[in-house]
């Protein structure tokens, strides 16, 4: 149980276009989803925390107008990278927490990640 | 954001050797987690340690949480090529996970 999927797994786009990445909790309801960014052989950097039905909370330094997050249901959150540029190329990973879990932070289930390459 | 330092950053050993990875912080965490990540995939949770001084074992992996809950270690006994990957520690800080920079482990046959 507690499987999180991401789609697509890989995407290549031209500079200036927008890309949408989906994060789904397949067999559980997720009140909170997190979006991370990871550079090659580097750690995961939290970008934003997304709660179902409300606006996402962005970490310092993350442009909310560039990285649009929508969490419309308890099983789906989307990250849209708007007007993508080569520096946005990265590995984007989402995680989801079980609704009603005892501790939101330490019950995160991670998706397999999406590799974004902007040409 | 509370910083977590991991050492070593890279480690290349031969099959059968033992190794220890360290995760240190100046901050106290309510709990700490260790993850293993393979290239192109998301991290997979190995263990959560909660109590200061706690020791948990997962087959050949031994995890220890420092008494002050600021640091942790991961010890692998008789490493195997299948242990190759990026090992990440993450401190639980309220609703978020603060990840260390990771230790990239390569175990060669």
Could you walk me through the main structural features you see in this protein, from its secondary elements to its overall organization?
The complex is a heterodimer of chains A (119) and B (109). By secondary structure, chain A is mainly β. Chain A has strands at 4-7, 10-13, 19-25, 30-38, 44-51, 57-58, 67-73, 76-81, 90-98, 108-110, 114-118. In chain A, strands 2, 4, 5, 6, 9, 10 and 11 form a 7-stranded mixed sheet that branches. Chain A is globular, with a radius of gyration of 13 Å. With 109 residues, chain B is mostly beta strands. Chain B has no helices and 11 strands. In chain B, strands 2, 4, 5, 9, 10 and 11 form a 6-stranded mixed sheet that branches. A 5-stranded antiparallel sheet of chain B has the order 1-3-8-7-6, with no helix packed on it. The radius of gyration of chain B is 13 Å and the shape is globular. The model of chain B has no long low-confidence stretch (mean pLDDT 92). The A-B interface holds A 4, 6, 32, 34, 41-46, 49, 59, 91, 93, 95, 103-106, 108, 110-113, 115 and B 1, 31, 33, 35, 40-45, 48, 86, 88, 92-102, 104.
């Amino acid at each position: 149980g507690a499987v999180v999927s991401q789609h697509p797994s890989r995407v290549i786009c031209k500079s200036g276009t927008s890309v949408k990445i989906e994060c789904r909790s397949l067999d559980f309801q997720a009140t909170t989803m997190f979006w991370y960014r990871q550079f090659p052989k580097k750690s995961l950097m939290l970008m934003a925390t997304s709660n179902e039905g409300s606006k996402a909370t962005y970490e310092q330094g993350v442009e909310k107008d560039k990285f649009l997050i929508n969490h419309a249901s308890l099983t789906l959150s989307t990250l849209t990278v708007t007007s993508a540029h080569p520096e946005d190329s990265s590995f984007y990973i989402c995680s989801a927490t079980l609704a009603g879990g005892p501790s939101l932070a330490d019950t995160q289930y991670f998706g397999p990640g999406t590799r974004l390459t902007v040409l | 954001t509370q910083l977590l330092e991991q050492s070593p950053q890279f480690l290349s050993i031969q099959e059968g050797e033992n190794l220890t990875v360290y995760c240190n912080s100046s901050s106290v965490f309510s709990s700490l987690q260790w993850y293993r990540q393979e290239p192109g995939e998301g991290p997979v949770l190995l263990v959560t340690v909660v109590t200061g001084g706690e020791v948990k074992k997962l087959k050949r992996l031994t995890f220890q949480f420092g008494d002050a809950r600021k640091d942790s270690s991961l010890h692998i006994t008789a490493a195997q090529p299948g242990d190759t990957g990026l090992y990440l520690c993450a401190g639980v800080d309220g609703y978020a996970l603060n990840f260390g920079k990771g230790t990239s482990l390569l175990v060669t046959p």
